[in-house]
What does this fold into?
Amino acid sequence: MTLQIDIALSLLLLLFVANGGPVMAKWLLGDRLAFPLDGGLRFFDGGPLLGPSKTVRGLLVGVVAGAAVAPLVNISWRLAAVFALASLVGDALSSFAKRRLRIPSSGRAVGLDQIPEALLPLWLFREPLGLDVWSVLLLVAAFGVGGTALSRVMFRFGLRDRPY
It folds into this structure.
């Protein structure tokens, strides 16, 4: 299968919106409604389960933002919402792994910061979205490169605390 450019751009937009929603919510709301997703729990190693930057607010905003962009990406709002949820779960898994590696909350881990949040939803929904393995891998790579560049732009405009 050949990945069509319009489908690729639509899925990248959905990934960026789902993952950018929590960042925008933090920028707009500050610490308001920022309840930690892990409830402050600690893992067996004594470190935080996820850390304070993964919030209930971020999860909700990311899912709603994903659903809201559904008409632009030509998929149902339900699929877009669950796709966004899967992306944010991938991001939380990344945070879990980073805490096990003793990387602090919001600390940088190239690859680990981008791959799970793109790979999980693209892999889970590859069949309904008509994606083959190569298309998934291409989109994950494009998200990694594009997400890194977009993070730097958002930092430059004061929308992110860090350029990564």
Notes: Residues 5-29 form the longest helix (25 residues).
